[in-house]
Amino acid sequence: MSALPAAHAAPGAMPGAPGAAPAPAGTPATPGISATPGASATPATPATPATPALQIRAAHTGTTVTVYQAYSPALGLPAARDGRFPPAWKRERMTWIKPSFLWMMYRCGWATKAGQETVLAVEITRAGFDRALAGACLSHYAPRVHADRDAWKESVRSTYARVQWDPERDPHLNPLPYRSLQLGLSGPLSRAYADEWTVSIRDVTPLAREIHGLLRSGDTGAARALLPVETPYPAGPLPHLGA
């Protein structure tokens, strides 16, 4: 590969999956990959040749990668204060992590949605992230990835990680013509994420509100300058995830 409480709930349905909605206007279709419903109809910004349709972009170091989640203050504030998820964080449930800050802002409405008022930047080990990616399966059937629907169903039954590719967002949360990863973790991987892979947890709600305020005032340039720097993550080819 080139280069909701809130975050526990599965993200929006995708075409090809049960209950999926039509792709939003301005969002191009990717064969076998679907769009997130409810997106703005504003025309998407053209992709550059250097931006693959499916790509993991993240803030990362040589040993860690930062992902985002949004929670109620009752969960998010203790997690940020202690640098680890509290006992109330349900380790038996699937949790969805997002390397894209702007996709998290789209999902949580700039920390305004109920139960998603606290946005966390969770720094986890690359070893754990890579382990989850290697053993993940797509959350929906994709003919160009799976031999047939039975093969896809078996992969869902036998894995603890799910991947969705959803349209990346610009600062105004309009969909872009390339996609961003969402990674769902369940069972042993959810527990490992919370108790083994997590290196640090920061409350970035003030940052989200500052950027949102600048955008609302029309200062897009200043807002962009505050966005976390996300570069292509060196995951290598991921054919089992369509990338």
Keywords:
single chain, 243 residues, alpha+beta, four-stranded mixed β-sheet, 7 helices, globular
Description:
- The protein is 28% helix and 21% strand.
- It has 243 residues and is an alpha+beta fold.
- The relative contact order is 0.22.
- The N terminus is likely disordered.
- Helical amount among residues, as a percent range? 25-40%
Sheet of most strands:
4 strands, mixed
What is the CA-atom radius of gyration, in angstroms?
Answer: 17 Å
Q: Termini separation (Å)? A: 6 Å
Instruction: Quote the average pLDDT.
Output: 85
Structural class: alpha+beta
Total E-strand runs: 9
Number of helical segments with 4 or more residues: 7
Biggest sheet, spatial arrangement of strands: 3-7-6-5
> Approximately how much beta-strand content do the residues carry?
15-25%
**Low-confidence stretches at least 5 residues in length (pLDDT < 50)?**
1-47
Shape: globular
**Secondary-structure element order, as H and E?**
EEHEHEHEHEEHEHHE
In short:
The strands form three sheets. Strands 3-7-6-5 form a four-stranded mixed beta sheet. A three-stranded antiparallel beta sheet has the order 2-4-8, sandwiched between helices. By secondary structure, the chain is an alpha+beta fold.
